[in-house]
Amino acid sequence: MGKEVKTNAMRILDRNKIPYEIINYECDEFIDGLHTAEKTGAPVEQSFKTLVMSGKAAAGGNRQYYVFVVPIAEEVDLKAAAKCVGEKSLEMLHVKDLTPLTGYVRGGCSPLGMKKQFPTVVHESAASFDKIYISGGRVGTSITVNPDALLKVTRGQYADIILIIVLFLFLTCHLCTFASGKIHDLLKFSAFYRCNTVIDMFSIL
Asked: Between helices 147-154 and 8-15, what is the axis angle to 10°?
C-alpha cells in the first residue's frame, strides 16, 4: 500500500500538530453528505458539510466570502448566518466558482486549506462532540478532527446557523358552514416544514 497523498487540509493540520484520522471511501464523483456517511459508517449527527457563500457586492464590485460548516442533514438559515457575519444577505457560491475560489471541487471541499482563509462559522452542535467528520479535501476522503481544534486553525466561531425542522401533523377534514354569508372551510394536512420558530400555520376565515 502506497503512502497517503496529503491534501492541503491534512497539511494544515500537520503544520499545527493537530491529530486527525483519514477515512477513504470508494467514490468517483460527487455524492452528498448523507451518502458519504453511509459509505464510511460515520454517525450522521457528527458529520458536517462545508458550504461557501458570498455577501452582497460592495461598491467596487468586490464580495466577501464565508465558510459555513453545518451538519450534513441540515440546511443553513440564511438570515441567521448573514447576521452572524455582519451581512444583510448571503447567497450560495455557484459550483463553477468553487474551484477557482477555494482550490477544491464539489464533494471534496474542506474548511481547511482553501486558497484563502475565509471567515468560518461552525454550527454550535459540533462543540458537543470530541470529533467531527469533515471533507478531507478531495472526493473520496473524509477526516475526523476535534471541533475546537478546527475553530482554532480556521480562526472561526460557533453559532446557531441552521434551520429547525418542525413536524406539523394534522388530520385532514373539511368543514363547511354558512354564517353571515361567508363559507367557513378548514383544511388540515400533514407536512414537513423548515422554519426558525414554530408558527401558527392556519387561520380560520
From this structure: 90
